[in-house]
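I had to read the description of the data format several times before I understood it. In essence, backbone conformation is discretised, so a fold becomes a row of integers matching the chain in length. I therefore recommend that a typical entry be quoted early in the introduction. For illustration, here is how one protein appears when written out as sequence plus structure tokens.

***
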Amino acid sequence: MSASDMRFFGYHAPTGEFQLFATLEEARDWVKEGLEADEDEAAADGWDEAVVDSCYGALVGGIVETSRRPREDVELTGDAQADEIIEYGLKVF
């Protein structure tokens, strides 16, 4: 599955982890697992204040490649990244 097929996200604030998912249910379950792990740790050390910043939801847009063309202003090196001009833009999903 490509990154463009991943329309949902989960963010676990205490660890700073961010992941993409194909379904909202997968995103919610992943964040719930993080909350359960946080709860286990809270029993010994107290709650991490960042726990309330954890979240999940739907992506509404992102950055996509809009064009790719060969460079004409320099001698080509054989390295695709150096020999091409790649442009990116915002896209609503």
Summary: The longest helix spans residues 24-45.
